[in-house]
Structures are given as C-alpha cells and as structure tokens.
Amino acid sequence: MKLSGPYLTLVGGLAVGGVLLALSSAAVDRGEDRVANAAASTPREAATTPPAEETPPSPTADAADTVADNAQQVLVPNGTYAGRENSDKASVAVSVKGKTAIAYFCDGAKVEAWVQGSADESPLVLKGKNGAKLTAEYKNGRLIGKVKAGGENWAFDVKKVKAPSGLYRAAANVRTAKVVGGWIIFEGKQVGMLNSSTTGESPAPPIDLTTGKATIDGTAVQTEPVDGSSLD
Amino acid sequence: MTAYQPMSPARSMTRLFVPIAIGIAVSVGLGVYGNLHEPTGIAVNISGFSGPLTVKVWLASAAFVLALVQLFSALIMYGKLPVQGPYWIGTLHRWSGRAAFLLTVPVAVHCLYALGFATFDTRTLVHSLAGCFFFGAFTVKMLILPRTGVPGWALPVFGGLVFTALAVLWLTSSFWFFTTIGVKL
User: Fold this and answer.
1) Per-residue pLDDT reduced to its tens digit, A118-138
2) Which of A20, A131, A200, B54 could form a disulfide with B109 if both were Cys (CB 3.0 to 4.6 A apart)?
3) Residue B3 resides in a domain
4) Residue A63 above 90 pLDDT?
C-alpha cells in the first residue's frame, strides 16, 4: 500500500467538498429569484427547494420569468419580503406573486394578522379581518410601509428573502380544534403564531425545515410556503 | 501495513495524540461552521431525483452499503470470520472505503450548506452531532494508517467508530426518510 494513499483520500474528499461548496454558493446566488418562486409551487419540498439547475442553467426559464414580469408590468417583483418591523417587537412577511400578494404580521405572542390583496398597484394595499391593513411600496429590493394590526400601527422596511426564509402557513384540524398557523422565517429565526378555534392565539411551535412540518399539540402538521397567489 | 507489522517496543498511545487532535479539530470545525453559517435552503443538485433530499438519501444509502463491505472485509482481514480472504481483500477494503467517503462528501456539503447544524428535534440533533463526529473519526483513521508505532487496536477501534457513526447517520436520515416519507427516487 502506498504510504500516501490515506492522505490522498483525505485531500480528495476535501477537494470534492470544496468544489461542491463553490458550486453551491454560485447556485444560491444565481437561483435567488427562481428559488423563491419555485419554492412556492412545490410545498412538500419547501425547505430543500427544487434544483437551481446546475448544468445547464436553464436560460429559457430565466428569460421566461423576465418576459412575464415585463409583460405584466408588475410593480413589485415576485418573492417574499420579510423582516422585523421598525420597533423590533414583531415580524412581517409579504409574499408577492403576479398580481396578488399575501402578508402576515405577528409578534409571536398575542398579535397576528393575515392580509391579502392586489399587487397590481402602487402602493400595495392589503386587507384582512378585524380592520387589519398593510400598505407598502417597493424600492430597490425592499418593501417599505405600514401595517395596522391589533389596533396598533407599525412601520416596516423589509428586504427580499430566499428559502428557507419566508412565509409559511398551515391550516389543520388538531384534535377537536381548527387551527391556523402562520410562521415568518428569516435570518435563521422563526416567529410564528397559532390561532385555534378553541384556545385562541398562542405562540407557534417551530417548523422542522427538512420536512416542513410543525408539531402542534402532538400532531405533525404540514406547513406550506405562501407564495402570494392565494389563501385557502 | 500496520496490521501486519511485527510487534515493536516503539508502539505507544502517544502516537495517537496528533491524529486525534486533528480529528477533533475537524469535528469541531464542521460543527462550528454548521452553526455559524446561515442555512440557504438550497445547494447543488443532481437531476433525475425528485429533489435534493432524495439525492442525499440514496447517496447516503450507497455509502452505507459500501460501509458494510468495509466492515466485512475488515473482519476477514483480521481473521475474525471463518473465511479465507482472497489476495485482493485489502484492495477491496481500501477502494470501497474511498468510494464510501467520497459519496458522503456531497451529502455533507448539502446538509451543512443548506440546512446547517440543526437542533429542531432529537433526530436532527443526533444527525448533526454524528455527522461532525464521522468526519473527525474518518480523518483520524486515515492519519493513523501511515503512522508508525501506533497501538494495534487503534485501527479497528477507529474503523469501528467510523462505521458506527455512519450507521447512526444513515438511521437518522435515509432510514427515517424511507419509513416516514417512503422509498422513492
């Protein structure tokens, strides 16, 4: 046995790893917008999003996206914009797809609101139950605006995020209650709330990003990424 | 090489210190990277599979099959099985080992880059820990091989640790996937 065999094996592994890491990094950069859209259309693999197509890079798909954007003269590029509101007490996420948008606001404790509406106007105006309302304008990759929820007004300035960050929702029957959950994930952190027909508002358990499921009251519930096209 | 050397007074455990230190550095380094790096959700993918998750599941399974080849060839080489090993058993062990290791690399890159060091539940925590441990233990085993004066039990012990770590990794990922989501490409 060559003395250098084991060293070569280690170096070989390091080399393969390094190449893959570099390719992954490139894939993340190139796939940013496509991943956000692709993630929305295949809920089961929300966290491990569909391939960013390493070889070849599918130029036709990219071109089609751009053409569609231009044709619709969409004011806000598709994707999910998420982050903290300006006083850092709550999170907000806005998902835009084509002409519609859905947004979610929650502080992870008591206040949450789902709003939706048309993305085909500027500023964006999305409305929901109990007087919840969000208005925002798009500027340089960021959505800047205000949201009224839980009787209070909040201001925000959030940027586009890529999977697994984003907005997730689940609606399920857990034991005897109908539960709707919303999660905002960004920068490795999750903020979420559950609204149960029997127990009201509560903080949500975390989503396991490899499966897209959250365990609510002992039951594993599948969450879906919200892409902005519709709320059930 | 080391397994068939005659006993010599130069064998001692201190010869293990440097390889183990390097192995620990590798394990800890991977864990720290996994924790600090913000998971991206995607990494390189291979077409033909339904997604990155199934690519990893099958690569890891292939690596595990090769690890079983590793286990049995090692047992034969050390005379633990009532079988006369063929002259190429050592070559088989080395090459199946290299192949298994190389197959685990893309899986680990994806796990670390796209998902990070996960602590959501027991399964992902054990997997993250075992993953870091596996590469450290494998490094130690590679570094021991060309090293003289290493105790005779070191190679089987680290080989066993590598195998066990990979088994734990496979059980907390591929096996979990097959039993929870199903056997599919």
Assistant:
1) 887 778 889 888 889 999 988
2) A20
3) no
4) no
The pair of structure tokens assigned to B161 is 């640790």
| Domain of residue B61, residue span | 14-180
ipTM value, please give it: 0.79
Residue B6: inside a domain: no
Residues of A in contact with B110 (CB under 8 A): 20, 24
Q: In this structure, is residue B37 part of a structural domain?
A: yes
Work out the pLDDT band at A108, boundaries 50, 70, 90. Answer: confident
Assess if residue B2 is contained within a domain.
no
Where do the domains of chain A lie?
79-225
By Cβ distance, the residue of B42, B124, B180 closest to A28 is B42
Q: Residues A55, B185, A225, A77: what is their CA dihedral angle, to the nearest 10 degrees?
A: 20
Closest CA to A86 of A156, A184, A187: A156
Q: Distance between CA A232 and CA A37 in Å, rounded?
A: 19
Give residues 94 to 153 of B whose Cβ lies within 8 Å of A.
Answer: 94, 97-98, 101-102, 105-106, 108-110, 113-116, 118, 120-121, 124, 139, 141-143, 145-146
The reported pTM is: 0.54
Q: How many domains does chain B have?
A: 1
The partner residue sitting opposite A21, judged by closest CB among B38, B109, B115, is B109
